[in-house]
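FORM 7B: Structural annotation worksheet

SECTION A. Query
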Amino acid sequence: MAVINDFAENKLVDALLRGQTINAPATYYMALSTATRSDAGGPTEPTDPAYARAAVTPAVTSFSSTQGDTTVSSGTDGTVENLTDIAWPTSTAAWGEIKSVWFMDAATGGNAWISIDLTTPINVATTGFTLHFAPGALTFQIDN
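SECTION B. Predicted structure
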């Protein structure tokens, strides 16, 4: 399950109905969480010193259109997916069971825009593990 978080919902309301600028991030910092997603708050991230959020630039080459290509979205189900591999640093300690991925607007702290629960949690129980999502592995649906 994926969700637009409260922060992003408020930005969308202000932009669509109140004439305010949305100021979407120039870079998303993808955070991993050992907790499932929520509308409010933020991720529960691994505490390994090697862990860092993965930076992804919003672009037609980073995420698909709603019809699954790199053109302007014109699909009808509101679903997009990652078009590039998204990878985190190699673990130097156990991270625990990763249950969700969060789109944040800062390398640390910041605001949550989107969060996605993983269909199957990934257990990073050892050192030397490089977690990544191949193209098409992360999907997000804005219309359900």
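SECTION C. Observations
Helices lie at 6-18. Residues 46 and 95 are 5 Å apart (CA to CA).

SECTION D. Sign-off
Analyst initials: ____
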